[in-house]
Amino acid sequence: MTAGPGLRLGLTGGIGSGKSTVAQLLATYGAQVLDADAMSRASTAAGGSAIPDIRRVFGDGFVAADGSLDRDQMRARVFSDPAAKQALEAIVHPCVQQAMARALSQSTARCVVFDVPLLVESLHWRQRVDAVLVVDCDPDTQIQRVMARNGWTREAVQAVITQQATRPQRLAAADAVVFNGAGNTLLQLEQNVRVLAASFGL
Q: What pLDDT score does 187 carry?
């Protein structure tokens, strides 16, 4: 990817860490947020760029009647089959990369935030950003938040956490950290992001 003169900031954090909230706060300071999850969902929606290859690799049973990815069925498959997870990523990730590149080529923002949940796990991302911002959270708080938000069981949330980078791995990759764990209020998070945004020239 190439970009204009703006700062390229990689934003990441484990599920339930509050990463999306931090991204929204950074946007209020003028950053352009490129959301990898949103681009991934678009690629697997009805008519999305990933659907033909998903149908070819996994079969019609993984495409819903409306032409979108059957997310529940695919989630169950990839959790139980690492090879299926790799096959799905090999289809979806290039679609996300292409969407990111298109958006970046058109950007004139002073700061472009790449909101990427698996930034630490994906080696190529570190070379594509100027700095990595990690939203840090203790695992038990992550689990409680996702259970309340998504209605998942503790075991389901733990399964996702297990597939992500560990907390120490994320912190080791960070150039800056925003803590958003137990007891942290939205006001405190807003204050921390305001200081951080100023340090990035926003």
A: 92
